[in-house]
Amino acid sequence: MLCMCLRALVFSLTRMATIASFIVVTRPDIVTESRTWMCLICGWIYDEAVGDSDHGIAPGTAWADIPLNWACPECGARKEDFEMVQV
Ligand SMILES: [Zn+2]
Fold it and tell me: 2-85 in CATH: which number?
């Protein structure tokens, strides 16, 4: 029981560290039209300006234009598991 609670705590701390490191590297002084999305499972970032060339997504592809069968390259999560990150 206690072991499970500690494991959950470590997991959430790890996730928070991932998000915090992303915020640090994001430069808020640069405003662009493109938006950034983050995988809730593993923290992988999709930047519309960069795309995902390894998986046939061209730079500048809007999130809405990504096919529904696309999955996160890191953990395989589906599009519905992603969440937009405000930049
Ligand atoms: Zn992922």
Answer: 2.20.28.10
| pTM attached to this predicted model | 0.58
Give 48 Cα–ligand 1 centroid separation in angstroms.
16
Distance from residue 21's CA to the centre of ligand 1 (Å): 16
> Following DSSP, what letter does each residue of 22-79 receive, concatenated?
HHHHS-TT---SS-EEEETTT--EEETTT-BGGGTB-TT--GGGS-TT-B-TTT--BG
Distance 84 CA to ligand 1 centre (A): 13
Q: How far is the CA of 66 from the centre of ligand 1 (A)?
A: 15
pLDDT tens digits, one per residue of 8-67: 766 776 676 665 665 555 555 545 578 999 999 999 999 999 999 988 999 999 999 999
Domain ranges of the chain: 2-85
